[in-house]
Structure formats: C-alpha cells, structure tokens
C-alpha cells in the first residue's frame, strides 16, 4: 500500500526573514526604523552642533549652507536638535508601549485564563476605561502627576492599557479553547506551565504586531502632550515640543514647523509599515 | 443516449509563488440524462477542482485546458459565459455557509428566478413553496419567512437543493453534500437526490470521499488520485472487480459496517476484565446566556448517565451530533465539570478532586482530539509536546525524557529524529500519531479518543485505527472511543453504548448490538449508515424520527442493556 502512506504536505514554509523580505512594506518600515535607531545611537557623532547652544550663526537661518536644516528662534541648529530628538522619540515610544504592553497582556491573559468573576471584573473595568478617549485619560493623568516628559510618557502608556488588554484577551481566549491547550490541561499541567509555555508564546506574535503599530500611536500622543505644554519642557529637543514652539513663527520661518512635523510623520510611517510587515510574516501558516 | 455533458482532457494548473502545480490532469467523462456519476478521491485528488473548473469558479491564479461540451458550447473556451444556475447547479458541503445568514429563505429562493427573468415575484414565490414541499420541508410557507440559522443542517441542505432545482438546471454538481451531516440525515438527503434525478432526468455529478455514499447512489464511478483519473466504470464493476491497485486499496481501507471488525475476536477476554472506571448518574446541563438578566435556553447534554469501562476493553460511544457523547468524554477527562454524579477510578471520585490532587490524577486519563491540526502547540517542537506529560509527572532528566520520546515516536510509526520538528511540517495523519504518542507518554490507564479519525482521509484513518488496535493488543490499552461512524466503531470496539439526547439507549457487546439491536433507534441508526456495497437494495433505509424509549436500562441479554 505504498501509494496510500502518509505524505508530508510539502517542505517547511519559508522562514520568517524570507517572508519579511518579500513584503516590501516591511522592508521600507524596517529601513526607516533602523535609520532612526542609527541616528539616535550616534547623535553625538552625527550632530554638527550642540543642540542646546544658542546663537551659533544667527537666528531664523533658512535650510542650506552651514546649517543644513536652518536654525531656530534662538539660533540653535535644527539638524542637531532633530537628531537628538530622535533619542527621546524612540525612548518615549519604547517606554510607553512597554507600559501598556506589559500591563495589557497581564490583564488580558489573566482574564482569559482564570475566567469566572476575575474575567468579569477585569474586562468590565477595561470596558469602562475604554469609554473615555485615550487623550482624556492621558490629560487627566498629567494633570495629577504634573507636566513633565516622564509623566507624559507614563500617561500615554497607561491610557493605552485597555486597548492592549482587550486585544490580548481575545487572542488568549482563542488559544485557551484550542485542543492543544486542553491536551495540556488533561496532561495535568499547572497554571504556570499553561500560561508561560503555551499561552504566552502563542499570543506573543499577535501582540508584537500590535505593539509595533502602537509605537507610532504612542509617539504621536506624547508629541501631542508636549505640543500642549504638558510634556517636554525647555530646552529639551523633543519633536512635539519643537512643533509647539514654532507656532509663533509660522510665517517667518515655516521650516521650524515643517521639519519636526516631517520627522514625526516619517517615524510614524516607519513603525506602521514595520508593523504591517511583521503581521504578514508572523501570521501563522501552520494550518492548511 | 447522448451525453448531456462531455468533458475531455480537462486539466487545471495552479500557479503560486513561481511554481505551477497540476491539480487535475486529463480528466474525461460523460454525464447523460438521469445518470448519477460519482467522482471519488481523497483530499488533494483534484475532484473538487474539476467541479470548480466546470462552474468557472477557479481562483484567478489557476489556468484550465481541455474541453467541456454542454448545450453545444465549450464551457472551458476562453470568454464563454459560465452556465451557473440555469444550466449547471452546484450544491456545497457546508449548508450553513452556503446560504446567506442575513436573508430569509424565501428571499434567497426567489431572488435568482426573478433576476434571471424566469418568473415574476408572485410566481417565483409560488414555485419556491412548491419546491420546498417537493424536497420534503414541512410547512413550507412558514419556512419562507425564516432565516438559515433557524433550520437544522439537513433542512438547510434541502433548501440548497430546492434553490438549485428552482432554476431547472440540466446538471447538478453536489460537492460532498452529506459530509457535514449526521448519518440519518445523510440517508434522507441521498434518497432525495436519487428521487430528483429519477423524476426530472437531470444529470448528477456527486463528488465524495465516502465509498458508502458512492455505493448507495451512483451508477458510474470515476476514481481520482493526485489529479489523475485512476479508474472509471460502472459502480458494480468498480466495487467487485477494481482493476487499479489504488481502487482496491481504497476499498480495503473503508471500514465495513456489514462485517465484523478485527478486534471482535477478543470480546470474550475483554468482557471478563474488571471494572476500571465507572461513571454513575452523571448529568450536565449547558445554559446559553441569553442576556444580562434573562436566563437563556438550557440544553441537557447528559441526563443521568451511568457506564462502566472495563480493564483492557475499547468501549465506543456512538451517537449523532448533540447526543452528549463528547460531553461524557470531557466530563471523564475533567475538561468539563458535571452538575451531578460521580466518576470513580479505583477508589477515587475524579469529579470531587481539586488543584494538586486533580493534576496528579490527570496522569491516568489522557485524551486524543479530533482536529490533528489544532491539537499540537504550533510553537513547540513535537518532542517538547510529547515530553510534556513526562515532564509534569516524573523527575526524569532531559536526556531520559528524550529517550522516552524517541521510543514513543517509534511506537507510533514515526522516527525519533522527528522530535526536533514543528507540527506544521507534518501531515494530518502524522500529527494524529504524534497526539497518540503524547497521550501515551505518561502511561495512562485510560485513553479517551474523541472522533480521532473523522478529520482524516479513509486510507489514513485505516492506518490510525490499525495503530490503536495494535496498542490495545500489545499494551492492554483501555480506550473510550467516541465516534459518529458506525463502521469504524464496529471495527474497533468491544462494546458499544448508543447515545441520544444525553441518554444511553443501548449498551452491549459490539457484535450483539449489530446483529441483534434491540432498541429501535439503534436499528434506525444502523439502517441509515451507507454501506460500500452497490448490490444492496437502495433506498430501503428508514428515516429516524419519532419518540424512542428513553427510560432506565434493563438487561435484555447477558451484558446487553436496553432502555425501556
């Protein structure tokens, strides 16, 4: 009966990197994000001037010449400020998403795993928080903690927790009802093993994609708070704060507004594209 | 008699990611008026692709060649309008997803007639009601106002057939029309299709993997494998004197309802075994939550069920969907909590255990699931999955665990080197072997197998059943085997319990139940099952309906219990 024996269904699917490279979105996103990380890491070497030094060559110099991106109202070099600003931007994105991802996954996985009254309590509280816009929650947080970049990041992170909790909860709910999870329960696995060896690895890919997309939301939200004067304080070179400061000179020196705006836009685009690419390459192809 | 549809050298090529695969190759056949042609094959044989090519429903990356002559035109020629609906009708496997859930039955039935200009709305409605009546749907004018979810699976499939027949096609293609249905409903749908072909003289192409269905309905058979035609001919010859080795192998692999199984000889020995596990007065009711305050519908999944499983036997739980057979399996494995009752293993009542003592007791009962694609953690190497019960319940070192895993893999017919691979690198049958290895890993005293072969092709099913029979013979494995497939059960089980609506109606040695079923429901169930033997008279199966005795079990013969 050789003709009827089990035949494995083809070779292994192409690896993660091959699929990542195939999605052109992901590649563009990856290049942008890597470029951003490069700028942040080597800001000391790349920046032609100290970003806080005033009056290096004159105020409101247009882009070009000695100052590639011009100078601002105090004569600070815009290029240097943008480069140093990328450090803050990345830090803001990472910390804020770190807060919301950790707290959200904890809430979501506990709710899906424990069920019963724990689930009801956690998920209904999440629903209540969901009914306020994230900006409102962040604003009230900063109002309590006081305006500073650090508090703005915490506020942005906390405000997004309900979203991450919901997403993680639904992903975890799907996994806990699958036979492989029940097989582990039937094998006598303790809760720790079930959560860390089965649940976590299977919801993590989904959450990584969500988090990558979330970085851009967090950067935008933090920039928004800085723009309102509730985040970064002078003389920090934070992009949102730079944007806010340029408002008064919009006619005289439009590049003061355009350049940080573009920097934020490109960064957000980069993380969005990367998240898109990750989604296609992490999507499980295990099933037929 | 000239052919209605003449297909010549039909080939389908699918292009994806730079590589081209032939899904069907040089398939030729004729369909005449009043003829039922069955295309048989396992998954990947190209049987569905052939039908889709005729309907013009192929995916955009597929190319088709060959000819299909119907009403003087070549369906496969470039630019030819597809003959969907009025020329050729198609019935799908899944009647739930084939009907639009948001429209009433009436709207869906009349829509096509009106759009195609076959009838005005009032006439269409009249015809639709008449057709619903024709396909055996009671109170058809009331059904017209209902939505698909309000009907049972069998009813929905009847509606699908009515919808196709209203357009008066000359050819009907039915793609696995009864695979998703219970056996008694399957029998009724096959009867209906046969009647329609006889009365309207249309041609029917029946695509199926089930040799029993073929034998019950078809006049001619086309056997396909990997896109090629293996053999074609009248049904009697294919079954009695198949010329291709593949056809013979396929027929041999089909479990036979009308013949005793291989394990039947061991009944006497097994029957003497002492009771291993005993379920007493187990009840379970599921409450569907209707809303925040309203209490929803209650479903009695298990209604005072008592059952003993003896050391070394295979006890089968048989029933249609909703009979409570899976719930009983899940109560015994403690994946679902029962409302009342006890499950005793040795001295222990499993249902009262909690926390650590429950986890320790779980070692003794392991489970094999239906879906081999979802029963292994996709992000763990299979060696890790198999070793999990060992890691939980023993203090063996990593190397010792690996040794055990290698031994288990060899035991289920795989090689120890495969332990490092991930589940997606295996076929369905291989995954089910891996799941069996995992179930065996901690040395359980009982294995609960919930439809372990119903997601597999028939040849793979035969291999898995052989493996389970081996394990039972050589290692004295005790098994609770849950299945809807009576033929499989007859082959593998020592004793059978027939369940319906949460109650056991009949319980006894497999051969006694088969040859001398005492409960009318059991007899109806056996009558309804298709038998792969075309010489048996067709259409003599009685539909299962009405009320059955569901009282307490009474011993009618030695070890043979029947509900009164």
Helix content of chain A: 55-70%
Quick check: average pLDDT of chain B? Answer: 85
Give the topology string of chain A: H per helix, E per strand: HHHHHHHHHHHH
Span between termini of chain A: 25 Å
- Let me know the number of strands of chain B: 22
Uncertain spans of chain B: 263-270
Strand content of chain A: under 5%
Structural class of chain B: alpha/beta
Please outline the helices and strands.
The complex is a heterodimer of chains A (288) and B (564).
Chain A: H1 16-22, H2 24-41, H3 43-46, H4 78-114, H5 116-130, H6 134-145, H7 149-159, H8 161-176, H9 179-186, H10 191-227, H11 239-245, H12 255-282
Chain B: E1 3-16, E2 19-32, E3 36-40, H1 47-55, E4 62-70, E5 73-74, E6 88-91, H2 95-98, H3 105-115, H4 121-134, H5 140-143, H6 153-166, E7 171-175, H7 183-200, E8 203-208, H8 211-217, E9 220-225, E10 228-234, H9 235-240, H10 245-253, H11 267-271, E11 275-287, E12 298-310, E13 314-318, H12 325-332, E14 340-345, E15 348-349, H13 355-362, E16 365-368, H14 382-393, H15 398-411, H16 428-441, E17 446-450, H17 458-475, E18 479-483, H18 486-492, E19 495-500, E20 503-509, H19 510-515, H20 520-528, E21 553-557, E22 560-563
Parallel strand pairs in B: 3-8, 3-9, 6-7, 7-8, 13-18, 13-19, 16-17, 17-18
Antiparallel strand pairs in B: 1-2, 1-4, 4-5, 9-10, 11-12, 11-14, 14-15, 19-20, 20-22, 21-22
